[in-house]
């Protein structure tokens, strides 16, 4: 019933500007996420949270030096980013890319159809796609004008977030990783993210959410919270852990882990 299993994961960032260009960021991450659960990662700045999401996405700037990641029983690390998406993994980054000259509706339809094709499902024709996307856009209070524009170009932060959540709900992933750290989301955008995750929730959907936002956690009500510090998961707790961390900071847990 485990959907994602990370074992002793070590990863380095390849930083060409540095003298010693391999810097180890993840130093033995262990994390198991069963189907149907919502897990959260919190942790001090620079602890490797975004690095973990990049490694899981297959970003070329990061090199895995040890350990394994199993996704639905398959070796995730040997899969290309496209294969990861086809297998049901969805990743949302802190800063969604802008694509000038690429129509948003066409972009979304291409993304959805490539995943449907890989899953052996029928591709959506433009008419059926538009019907589906308009339905979802309405639920997300997302103006259909945004579908006619170029991908994320000139979108406000909240609009980019809505577009990302729209893409996620269209793709119907079985696992979503959302890195919300430092993104300065307003209250509406937080609510959109929460609604998007909640709308997908089922016994076949899991998520890993990286966030500092207590308000997002209040909306989402995660099953577990993990603390990542210095490239390792040092603590696991229930949803109440976030308030405890807000009150006392990370100092005590990090100190105990160092001993
Ligand atoms: P977090 O998301 O927890 O704040 P990050 O994963 O972004 O942490 O960063 C972890 C550490 O790795 C930091 O010290 C950061 O400076 C370093 N790092 C991350 N990406 C790069 C990169 N592309 N080049 C150099 N250093 C990086
Ligand atoms: Mg950071
Ligand atoms: Mg980060």
Helix content: 25-40%
Classified by CATH, the class is: Alpha Beta
- What is the number of helical segments per DSSP (H or I, 4+ residues)? 10
Q: Could you tell me the number of beta strands? A: 12
Q: What would you give as the CATH superfamily?
A: P-loop containing nucleotide triphosphate hydrolases
Structural class: alpha/beta
CATH topology: Rossmann fold
Number of domains: 1
Low-confidence stretches: none
Give the amount of beta strand, in percent.
Answer: 25-35%
Main β sheet profile: 6 strands, mixed
Protein name: Fe-S cluster assembly ATPase SufC
Keywords: ATP-binding, Nucleotide-binding
Family: Belongs to the ABC transporter superfamily. Ycf16 family.
InterPro entries: ABC_transporter-like_ATP-bd, ABC_transporter-like_CS, FeS-cluster_ATPase_SufC, P-loop_NTPase
Structure report:
By secondary structure, the protein is of the alpha/beta class. It has a single domain, classed as 3-Layer(aba) Sandwich (Rossmann fold), CATH 3.40.50.300. The protein is 39% helix and 29% strand. It has helices at residues 49-57, 81-86, 104-118, 126-139, 145-148, 157-171, 187-200, 214-220, 241-248, 251-258, and strands at residues 2-14, 22-34, 38-42, 62-71, 74-75, 89-92, 99-103, 150-151, 175-179, 206-210, 224-229, 232-237. The strands form 3 sheets. A 6-stranded mixed beta sheet has the order 6-9-10-3-11-12, sandwiched between helices. Strand 4 (62-71) and strand 5 (74-75) form a beta hairpin. Helix 6 (157-171) runs parallel beside helix 7 (187-200) and helix 7 (187-200) runs parallel beside helix 8. The longest helix has 15 residues, at 104-118. It is globular, with a radius of gyration of 18 Å. The protein starts with a strand and ends with a helix. The mean pLDDT is 90. The structure holds adenosine-5'-diphosphate (ADP) and magnesium ion (2 copies).
């Amino acid at each position: 019933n485990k959907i994602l299993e990370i074992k002793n994961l070590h990863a380095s960032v390849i930083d060409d500007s540095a003298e010693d260009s391999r810097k180890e960021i993840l130093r033995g991450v262990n994390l198991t996420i069963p189907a149907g659960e919502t897990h959260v990662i919190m942790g001090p700045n620079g602890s490797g949270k975004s690095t973990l999401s990049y490694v899981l996405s297959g970003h070329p700037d990061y090199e895995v030096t040890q350990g394994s990641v199993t996704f639905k029983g398959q070796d995730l690390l040997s899969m290309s980013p496209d294969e990861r998406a086809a297998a049901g993994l969805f990743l949302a980054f802190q800063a969604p890319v802008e694509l000038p000259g690429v129509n948003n509706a066409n972009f979304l339809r291409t993304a959805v159809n490539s995943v449907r094709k890989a899953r052996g499902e029928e591709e959506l024709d433009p008419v059926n796609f538009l019907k589906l996307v308009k339905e979802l856009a309405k639920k997300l209070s997302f103006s259909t004008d945004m579908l006619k524009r170029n991908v994320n170009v000139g979108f406000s932060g909240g609009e980019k977030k809505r577009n990302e959540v729209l893409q996620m709900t269209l793709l119907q992933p079985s696992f979503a990783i959302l890195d919300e750290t430092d993104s300065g989301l307003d209250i509406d955008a937080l609510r959109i993210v929460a609604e998007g995750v909640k709308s997908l929730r089922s016994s076949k959907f899991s998520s890993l959410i990286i966030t500092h936002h207590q308000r997002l956690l209040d909306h989402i009500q995660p099953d577990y919270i993990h603390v990542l510090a210095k490239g390792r998961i040092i603590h696991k707790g229930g949803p109440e852990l976030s308030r405890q961390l807000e009150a006392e900071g990370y100092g005590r847990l990090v100190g105990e882990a160092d001993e």
